[in-house]
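Researcher: Re-running this chain for the archive, since the previous output was lost when a drive failed. Same request as before.
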Amino acid sequence: MVSTELAYSREKFGYSSSIHGAIHVTSQADPVDVLDRALFQLYRDVRVGGYDVMTERDGLLWDPESLGLSATPSRSALVGRYGNLAPGQTFPTPPPPRPAPTSRPVPANSRSTATSSATP
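Model: Regenerated structure tokens:
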């Protein structure tokens, strides 16, 4: 992992609380595997309504759709992927099946000031 830009948004104006951001990985990393493990850990440890996290590698983005989830998966979508988790549970071996990942280019203005907070 090169860097993490995650932020927490509190529930307000009818929108549920959420975690959103990007994880930047090296050229050697599997960005979809990193995304899968990050979503698992966030889902296991942080109770929010939505998880809008993606990984970036070599100028390309992979998002939850690469795992067969909606663009911003809710807790119920992650329950469908990982089941009901207990604190401290480890990532499943083998990992849940996923469709063939597809990427998209990083938008030109994606580099913003990072917030390194994943805890509400």
